[in-house]
Amino acid sequence: MLQVLIGSGIAFISAVCGWFISHRWQQRNYRLAVDADRGRLNQSVEKWATEVVDVMNRMHAHFEHSSHQEAIERSRELVLSLSILVDQGRLYFPNVMRGVYGEEKQQSRQGYRSALLDPLVAAIEVSRGVQPEFDLPDTKKKYGSNRNSKALRLYLNAFLSLVERVLLVEVSHQKLVARLTEVGDREEAQQLERLLCPEPGSGPVPPGHKYWLGQESGPEIPNESVIFK
User: Fold this and answer.
1) CB 164: neighbour CB atoms within 10 A?
2) Taking Cα atoms as reference points, which of 117, 116, 130 lies closest to residue 75?
3) Rounded Cα–Cα distance for residues 205 and 207 (Å)
């Protein structure tokens, strides 16, 4: 009888262990599949977003360094390019709340445009000559020297912030650091963490552009090693 109980106990424990290992393996494979799917989506969105950034920076340059009317003329092709990119962006960020608004329209235009695309549409309008109703306070002139160029820079920054949230850039960096740590590459993980996602106390604060201009380093020649100290 005792042997039967022992055998049953061993069989039960073996079954539980087998289920646990199988469950963990399935979870791991599912995580890998999800990561792979997100990686493919991110790759496409990143390519699209880099084209948007290129076009909007060129628009900003026109409105910053040319007269208003000349900037409008010089931006015609860029406006067309950005309009195309907005429509392409609908493939990744389709309209939302389709049952709430615009039911009389074609399906792709029903609902509200994705919030991520709104700054791009505003940039198109400004580049066509529409004046923004605000003038961004910018005493250091980091955004531009006139109302329109400042608005375009504001739209670009907003777009970058939204895309960064979609791509989960910071989370992806943290996962990469964690995986390097898991496989034992601690030194490489620490260096990557200091570069990509430093936290207070885990590494030096990014030195800033003034360091590289020599305005804060004195006679010392700027060196990237300060990032990994």
Assistant:
1) 12
2) 130
3) 6
